[in-house]
Write a structure and sequence with these properties.
It contains seven helices and six strands, in the order H-E-H-H-H-E-E-E-E-E-H-H-H. With about 200 residues, the protein is of the alpha+beta class. The strands form two sheets. A four-stranded mixed sheet has the order 2-5-1-6. A two-stranded antiparallel ribbon has the order 3-4. Helix 2 (about 45-70) runs antiparallel to helix 4.
């Protein structure tokens, strides 16, 4: 009898784990459909390449800021970014040239796989996301990223600090469950009461 109870409990936990995994996957896809990320890949992990990556980030941010301010949704943001893609590349290459780098830059809006990423107090689950991706040179160095829509990148001058307006916009874009799942002090975890009960 005791063995049956244990086996039943194990089976229930296995089912709950599967449900939890499926729920997380569905949640990630739903979140990904509502945001546009910004991704800058450095040429390498050398100090010089990493520093110029940040300069490119800042320059592109300064260029895009007034255009993004007019965007009301993800479609307008995507269209705006695509309409200014040549300028984004030009701004990136100008920064590289000014700093003595000849390896060039490329940019596109693409779907790419991201690992779990934390930005300020927000942690986004791993999975495929649409992003404006700027690749510097070989693009083999550590990357920098943020959320372009809703605009969490260029509201102010301090990066990695999400301003209140940006938090409010993200909360309006995501469902309450989605927002709660990413706003958890750097932890992404969906909890089920029944699973907590068994624990």
């Amino acid at each position: 009898m005791r063995k049956k109870i244990i086996l039943t409990a194990i089976a229930i936990l296995a089912v709950l784990a599967c449900v939890n995994s499926c729920r997380k996957a569905e949640m990630q896809k739903s979140i990904a459909s509502k945001i546009l990320r910004f991704h800058v890949l450095a040429n390498s992990d050398s100090e010089a390449d990493q520093n110029v990556k940040k300069q490119v980030r800042d320059a592109v941010g300064t260029y895009l800021r007034p255009y993004l301010a007019e965007c009301k949704n993800i479609d307008e943001t995507r269209d705006t970014v695509n309409a200014h893609m040549d300028e984004i590349v030009a701004v990136s290459e100008e920064v590289l040239s000014e700093n003595g780098f000849a390896y060039g830059a490329s940019a596109c809006v693409t779907h790419t796989d991201f690992p779990v990423k934390t930005y300020g107090d927000y942690t986004f689950p791993k999975g495929e996301y649409e992003a404006l991706e700027i690749t510097l040179g070989e693009g083999e160095g550590h990357n920098w990223w943020c959320v372009l829509y809703p605009n969490m990148c260029f509201k102010g001058t301090v990066y990695e600090v999400v301003e209140d307006d940006a938090k409010k916009e993200l909360k309006e874009v995501l469902s309450p469950d989605e927002y709660e799942s990413v706003f958890d002090s750097g932890k992404y975890e969906i909890k089920f009461k029944i699973l907590e009960f068994f624990r």
